[in-house]
């Protein structure tokens, strides 16, 4: 069974799977994944001078994070150090020397880090075993204050194309920094239908037009009840928010913005009045 949420650091894509119409996945679930799942930035490297992270720090709305240094199998005499060089939350240069005084294990930085510099990791006094560096959260989702305003920092795929998935966005505003794709066997619902013809839990999404070969609707289903979808122009010629295939049902919803839409093999169910600008 596919994981509910998975972030592939190599591709930079977040995938959201699973959920049903009775028990859907939502941004509360994604927030739990974000805050409870550490990210590995350097994995089992050989200790040396001038190491660099495989993946840069992603601090989201926190701007800077503490880092964990995990040493295993190293020959240590408890007077070694790991020296980090990079930037603080304001982007200013900083350095920290982490004392390795308790043998192999996990050491947490005293400072918080917005980034580590190229060749910004120096292992002093040891060169065997492995060093791993992690951050305490994924760094792909930001939630601002106590408001229901979210920013997803990376491209998102709803469904993996085969796993039945259902995702709901209710009474919140979501800003996507990367392309959004709704795959086959996945349903995304914005808002909640009601018997009195007045949708509730209205949500607004700010979605960028996708790169070539990226489909906003790629065989899945989009349900909008009082939804507001703003399409942001990427300023690239011939780039659209591409409804490639699937089903769209919109009720009292609004699609506008400064980007373009491209419709291909989609089935639309449009309840009046649909505002399309």
How do you describe this structure in short?
The protein is mainly beta. 4% of the residues lie in helices and 47% in strands.
Main traits of this protein?
single chain; 277 residues; mainly beta; 2 domains; 9-stranded mixed sheet; 7-stranded mixed sheet; 1 helix; 47% strand; disordered C terminus
List the helices and strands and how they pair.
Blueprint: E1 5-8, E2 13-16, H1 27-36, E3 39-45, E4 68-72, E5 80-87, E6 93-100, E7 105-108, E8 115-124, E9 130-135, E10 141-143, E11 149-152, E12 156-158, E13 165-169, E14 173-176, E15 180-183, E16 186-190, E17 204-208, E18 217-225, E19 228-232, E20 241-251, E21 254-257, E22 261-271, E23 275-276
Parallel strand pairs: 2-12, 11-14, 12-15, 13-16, 14-17, 15-18, 16-18, 17-19, 18-20, 19-21, 20-22, 21-23
Antiparallel strand pairs: 1-2, 3-9, 4-7, 4-9, 5-6, 5-8, 10-11
Describe this entry's structure for a reader.
Helices cover 4% and strands 47% of the residues. The protein is mainly β. The protein folds into two domains: 5-36 and 140-276, no CATH class; 39-135. Strand 5 (80-87) and strand 6 (93-100) form a beta hairpin. The chain is elongated. Residues 273-277 have low confidence and may be disordered.
Coarse morphology? elongated
Overall mean pLDDT score? 89
* Rg, alpha carbons: 22 Å
Strand residues, percent: over 45%
DSSP helical segment count? 1
**Straight-line distance between termini:** 40 Å
How do the SSEs run, as a string of H and E?
Answer: EEHEEEEEEEEEEEEEEEEEEEEE
Helix fraction bin: under 10%
Question: Which class best fits the helix and strand makeup?
Answer: mainly beta
């Amino acid at each position: 069974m596919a994981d509910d949420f998975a972030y592939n650091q190599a591709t930079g894509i977040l995938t959201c799977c699973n959920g049903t119409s009775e028990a859907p996945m939502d941004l509360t679930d994604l927030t739990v994944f974000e805050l409870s799942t550490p990210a590995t930035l350097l994995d089992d490297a050989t200790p040396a001078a001038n190491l660099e992270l495989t993946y840069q720090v992603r601090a989201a709305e926190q701007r800077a994070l503490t880092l964990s240094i995990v040493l295993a199998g190293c020959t240590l005499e408890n007077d070694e150090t790991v020296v980090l060089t990079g930037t603080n939350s304001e982007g200013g240069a900083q350095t920290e020397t982490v004392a390795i005084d308790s043998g192999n294990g996990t050491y947490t930085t005293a400072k918080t880090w917005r980034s580590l510099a190229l060749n910004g990791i120096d292992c002093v006094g040891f060169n065997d075993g492995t060093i791993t560096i992690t951050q305490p959260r994924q760094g792909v989702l930001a939630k601002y204050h106590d408001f229901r305003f979210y920013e997803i920092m990376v491209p998102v795929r709803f469904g993996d194309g085969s796993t039945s998935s259902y995702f709901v966005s209710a009474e919140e505003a979501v800003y996507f920094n990367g392309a959004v794709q709704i795959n086959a066997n996945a349903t995304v619902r914005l808002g909640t239908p009601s018997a009195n013809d007045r949708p509730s839990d209205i949500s607004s999404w700010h979605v960028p037009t996708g790169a070539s070969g990226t489909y906003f609707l790629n065989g899945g289903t989009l349900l909008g009840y009082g939804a507001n979808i703003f399409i942001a122009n990427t300023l690239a010629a011939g780039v659209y928010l591409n409804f490639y295939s699937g089903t769209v049902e919109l009720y009292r919803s609004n699609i506008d913005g400064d980007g373009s839409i491209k419709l291909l093999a989609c089935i639309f169910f449009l309840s009046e009045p649909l505002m399309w600008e």
